[in-house]
Amino acid sequence: MAIQTRYAGDANGINNVDAKYDGTLATIIATGLTKNPTALKITGFGTFSATESGTGGPVEAILRSIAIDSTIVMYQVDTTQISVLVEAIGTTTAAVQTRLQGLGGNIGLAANIYSGGGVTVSSTSGFKLA
């Protein structure tokens, strides 16, 4: 018979690890983060190319706008969408959307990235890989 000694801890769920944290299956489990993460899906800017992810480009402008009150952990740029995982969102997704809509006219290097009323920010899709 094996002997197992418990050194520390209790039987309660671990914050950000246990699925019973908020009672849903779509909870993001983040064992290395200290705050509850939020996955943002940002669409409506137009078509992104690889050159727009460079310094001073529209992706940087978008990320700087999000980072005003949120801690960005990682992001992914697709041709029509930016996915951002933030460790702590200091505001609502509606406020982030309003801020991004206010970035102004053409922010793209290739004149194909536009902000305006069509920009949407959603956090209801969760975080999906591939």
Describe this structure in words.
The protein is an alpha+beta fold and 130 residues long. It has a domain of 86 residues: Alpha-Beta Plaits. It is 14% helix and 20% strand. The chain is built from two helices and four strands; from the N terminus they run βαββαβ. It has a four-stranded antiparallel beta sheet with strand order 2-3-1-4, covered by helices on one side. The longest helix is centred in the middle third of the chain and has 9 residues. The radius of gyration is 19 Å and the shape is elongated. The termini are far apart. 19% of the residues are buried.
Query: What is the CATH first-level class name of the domain at 37-122?
Result: Alpha Beta
Measure the end-to-end span: 44 Å
Count of DSSP strands: 4
Query: How does the helix and strand content classify structurally?
Result: alpha+beta
Q: Helical amount among residues, as a percent range?
A: 10-25%
Order of helices and strands: EHEEHE
Radius of gyration: 19 Å
Gross CATH architecture of the domain at 37-122: 2-Layer Sandwich
Mean pLDDT, nearest integer? 76
**Helix count, DSSP H or I runs of 4 or more residues:** 2
**Beta-strand residue fraction:** 15-25%
Shape: elongated
CATH topology name of the domain at 37-122: Alpha-Beta Plaits
Unreliable residue runs: none
